[in-house]
Hints:
Elements: H1 6-22, E1 28-33, E2 37-43, E3 47-56, E4 59-64, H2 67-70, H3 76-86, H4 92-112, H5 116-129, H6 131-145, H7 148-158, H8 172-194, H9 198-216, H10 225-243, H11 248-260, H12 264-267, H13 275-296, H14 301-313, H15 317-325, H16 333-344, H17 348-361, H18 370-382, H19 386-400, H20 403-415, H21 419-435, H22 446-453, H23 457-467, H24 471-481, H25 486-500, H26 506-526, H27 529-542, H28 547-555
Antiparallel strand pairs: 1-2, 2-3, 3-4
Helix pairs in contact: 1-3, 5-6, 6-7, 6-8, 7-8, 7-9, 8-9, 8-10, 9-10, 11-13, 13-14, 14-15, 15-16, 16-17, 17-18, 18-19, 19-20, 20-21, 22-23, 23-24, 24-25, 25-26, 26-27, 26-28
Amino acid sequence: MNSLTEANLKALAGPRSYERGLGCLDAVSGVEVGDSRVTATVHGTERYEVELVLEGPGGLGGECDCPYGLEGNFCKHLVALGLVVLAEPEGSLPRQRKAARDRGQDFDAWLSGLSKEELLGLMREQVGEDRQLRRRLELRAASARGDLAGVRARIRELLDIGPFARYGYIEYADARAYADQAGQAVSAIRALTASGRSADAMPLAREAMLLLTEAVESVDDSDGGLGQVGADLADAHLDACRMARCDPEELARWLVGHVLGDFDDLTGIDPLDYENVLGDRGMTVLRKLAVEAWRGNRTGWAEKYLMERLAKAGGDVDAVVAVHAADLAENGHTHLIIARELDTARRPDDALRWAERGIRDARDPAAVDTALVDYLCDRYAQAARLPDAVALRRDHFGARRTLLAYQQLRAAARAADCWQAEREGALVLLRADAGRRQEGWYGGPVLVDALLDDKDVDAAWEVATETGAHDRQWLALADQARASRPADALGVYLRLTEPLTKQTGNAAYEQLVSLLLSARDCHRRLGTLDEFTAYAIALRTAQKRKRNLMRLMEQHGL
Length: 558
């Protein structure tokens, strides 16, 4: 129990989940204390089963079947359970753990004292009441008898969506139960391999993959439970292949067909994991089939993936380049991938040529992959080709006209000691856009953003006044101009304050208070604090029903 502390809960969950866990304490029910773990139910968006491990190999830990917990995170529900346990009266937990140990020992002693007939009777009673337990035991029995047809039939039942589906679809609430049942099929296949029947397990694993692929189309697998079952099936198949004396050529054909089929996304099988099983003969067939498939469809994703995977494994960078070169993206992204592959292979000159070709081949300069531009500019800078970097940044800015492209052009031009000339040309383009009322991605003329970024506040204010600007730009202008133009800045703050007085919610209140603080600073600079005091009193009177706003204003002396 030494590991269960508030500090450890906060360290495992992080501040955000810990704070959210504080709000879930009343949702914890059905707490059961065991020897080394505590289980409970926590009611959130759904009903979640939570298990807090007190003394595992890694210390404090736990599991929860909420979406966040299923990703391996220590969630707010685990925090809530931990805090509920810590709130128990001192000394009660050790007593409960001792009682759990005693109950376990008593139960084991009772089971050990039952006769064979009594145990059989008990088992039959449980099997009659629990259909899932019956299915698991029937599967084990079929495996023990060597009844392959029976095992196949049981696996098909386990992967049947019928018992869980409503109108032919398994909803999110039932998906986990179905995934747990589907996982039993994996256990049955592993059991066959472990019992020396890997030759039977191998085709059953393949059949199960097909069935699962069909089923997943009718399941809300948001939590990825079936994805994990698919990965486990792939592992079970690989284990069976390692144990069985399979035909390497047949296995190679199956692997290629599987990777190129529609179900590889579910299992994620990597043919290279089978390299030792395939041997030289199987790998030769695998490569031959992969090349044939790629030549038949050079733009197919699966075909390219398989060829690239084999080429990389063989250290054949030219083959990797050939795969990508057969399907070049118009924006230069593929050229960049090729350049990076060649860099890895320590062929920088070839990499540079491919990157430059990507710029030349691009049909639409505005659509060129910005990562390719960044890559080339870095290469030019390393080679002291600063004019080339500036020229590329100039073309990129001319096509994009964004603040980021402007900033990148400025950095490159300053490095080449030619920013003044470049700035004049860039501003000409931005003024033309502003004159056409052409706005940037975030609203308002990019010219205003560029001038603000250059700290040319007066010019930015002039443009905003002439052509208009977005409210976010006016706020930035006021913030930068407050010291030199307090009266102008005050007008902006008061205008932006007005609509916020009609809104509710803490976010709006925080924005409103921030603007009021700025407005007060403007009045201070103007020597008119009395006017602000009167304004603030009137505002408090009008907004007095908004208690959170009143509290926030009080905290800031407003």
